[in-house]
Write a structure and sequence with these properties.
With 230 residues, this protein is an alpha/beta fold. The chain has seven helices and six strands.
Amino acid sequence: MTGANRGLGQALAAEALARGAGRVYAGTRRPLAHPDDRVTPLSLDITSPAQIQAAADQVGSLDMLINNAGIALPDDLTDPAVLERHLAVNLFGTHTVTQAFLPAVTRARGAIVNILSVNSLAALPFIIPAYSVSKAAAFSLTQSLRAHVAGQGVRVHAVLPGPVDTEMIRGFDIPKASPESVALAIFDAIDNGEEEIFPDPASAPMAALWRDGAAKVLERQFAQLTPISS
């Protein structure tokens, strides 16, 4: 799991342990000490390909890869460097981590869980537009990855929460779900085989609309298309 030292990542690690996980690999940028000896810390800056590969080399088999690390910075789309920073973490970091750990997940016929956002579906244009762009791109990556690895027995889940009470949005005066409740809902939905997971009161009403909506229908149709041979 990336971003495992605080917020939702910390809650996800705790929930995995509570459900009997024999080993949790906790990827963090800063050193992590954990009281449970089932937790194995991994030094993991997801913008560093060298660190990612070094972490992947320590893992032989992996039942579940959770891509949780991310950034969200207010902007107005005038500075391309801010957009590039979001893409570097939320899109390219997620992609690089997934490719590095995919052999371990494939050996276990496991699951990949990408923590995204309802802003993957609709932007907050006057608050966090660059973040929204990066999460929309990461959602598209998740959909394509799902089709590519389905034949290897690997499941891919997209988590699309509303506001969660973490440091990322602590300054926003809006209702927020607790990380613990969101982590619980995520693992329940994974157990139920849900491809898109709406794990909190703000996002949950979208679940039924999404499953029967045009975007999901198109995803299923496009996943059946194969390249035309020349």
